[in-house]
Design goal:
It is a single chain. The chain is of the alpha/beta class. Helix content is 42%, strand content 19%. It contains 8 helices and 6 strands. It has a 6-stranded mixed β-sheet, with helices on both faces. A hairpin with a 2-residue loop joins strand 2 and strand 3. The longest helix has 19 residues. The termini are far apart.
């Protein structure tokens, strides 16, 4: 199997995981970036307050998303880009939770995406004093990017996984996970997830 996946990164308007205000997507085929996309999102109603802390991190303000597509309007585009790929993100639990919670808030049915966490991959691949995205990406040879820009962060995440697979001499995300003692996370059924919560 070739090294195929989609890296994803969300920025949020506030502490609610449903408050997606920006997404970045990077498609990797056979270990090479072949397509990128990123856009602003109007967060779902009830999750659309922009908190100062979040704005300070990513610089996105309410007026920036005023004319952006709503979560529902852009959802099909996001899913079409990702296809059936394994989604890779730095702290994948956060980004997959944003995807699920924003979908729940708007009544969308979120596809059952599998995921691999590039933060865990970086911890198993590099010896660093910090595994925050800028440091891990620099170790992968990808530096000088605009951290907290969703597209730039997704690209950095992709480069970590590409570099780690090369170092581990594996050809796909499943082989990488096995080589590092990790696993590609299978989706949790919504009913099962509610029972656990």
């Amino acid at each position: 199997m070739p090294l195929d996946f989609t890296a994803i990164d969300f920025e949020t308007a506030n502490s609610s995981p449903a408050s997606a205000c920006s997404v970045g997507l990077v498609r990797v085929r056979d270990g090479r970036v072949v397509a990128t996309a990123g856009w602003l999102i109007q967060p779902p109603a009830g999750h659309d307050e922009f908190q100062e802390w979040n704005v300070k991190i990513h610089g996105i303000r309410p007026h920036d998303v005023r004319d952006a597509a709503t979560w529902s309007e852009q959802f099909d585009r996001l899913c079409a880009f990702a296809g059936a790929d394994v989604l890779v993100a730095h702290n994948a639990g956060f980004d997959l939770n944003v995807l699920r919670r924003a979908s729940e808030a708007t009544g969308e049915i979120c596809p059952p995406y599998r995921s691999l966490c590039s933060l865990q991959v970086a911890r198993k691949t590099y010896e660093l004093d910090s595994y925050r995205l800028p440091k891990a990406a620099a170790a992968a040879g990808f530096s000088e990017f605009s951290h907290h820009d969703a597209l730039a962060d997704a690209r950095a995440c992709a480069e970590i996984v590409i570099d780690s697979a090369r170092r581990a001499e594996v050809s796909d995300v499943f082989g990488l996970a096995r080589a590092l003692g990790l696993r590609v996370t299978e989706p949790v059924a919504a009913a099962e997830e509610r029972a656990v919560a």
